[in-house]
Amino acid sequence: xxxxFTGATVKHLTEETKDDNELHIFNFLxxxxxxxxxxxxTDSLCCFCDELFVDIDKFLDPMFDFDFTNLKDDSTCKRGxxxxxxxxxxxxxxxxxxxxxxxxxxxxGTNGWRSYSVDGEWPVSYHGTSMNSxxxxxxxxxxxGSGQVYGRGIYSTYDIKEASNYTHxxxxxxxxxxxxxxxxxxxxxxxxxxxxxxxxxLIEIPAGTPHNKEREIVEKxxxxxxxxxxxxxxxxxxxxxx
Length: 242
Known about the structure:
Blueprint: H1 2-6, E1 9-12, E2 51-54, H2 56-59, E3 66-67, E4 78-79, E5 82-83, E6 91-94, E7 124-128, H3 131-139, E8 153-157, H4 160-164, E9 169-171, E10 178-187, E11 192-194, E12 200-204, H5 211-221, E13 222-233
Parallel strand pairs: 1-2
Antiparallel strand pairs: 3-6, 4-5, 6-13, 7-10, 8-12, 9-10, 10-13, 11-12
Organism: Cirrhinus mrigala
Protein name: PARP catalytic domain-containing protein
């Protein structure tokens, strides 16, 4: 999926491919070969390269990648006893989350396609975002955004079409293709607030919450497990937006 998205050859980041003179900007997505230059990991950098080295073992879980691009499925599905719309038309890169959290893996449900819920799993939600924000969220956690219509916190929705209204495009320099970006999450039904617009779900985080407490709330409430890409147009771009 990354190779299709970037137009570059994707290889595992290993001890053999690491070099002290190479700058690996992100731990789980495109790296570039820039020598003798210091750059904070939160800075953005356009990546013009033929090869990407990805720390797959640390952040990605390719066995759960899935290409929904040509899938058409209007069947009734549930996750966490809530309606679940499969991301038809999108391509998913799976984030490594198995055994990541201290409460186990029940929130993910069981592996494999099914139309029904299982005990202990959380509902699915979608969050429109930019590529830089997606990287930061996967690397750390969600943080409250500026939109506070129904309260301060993290917003997501079970409606993938609604989430798509909030996505930002990312452009592939090598192929000229433009993609929307979404995060696919599981959300704790005991922690979420159903807003006046019922398709909006909110994890409330009061203003002034200490950073460590904020992170604790988020990790107990909403967990991204997939990055979704969808091609939206095919016009050659002027630059790559990382």
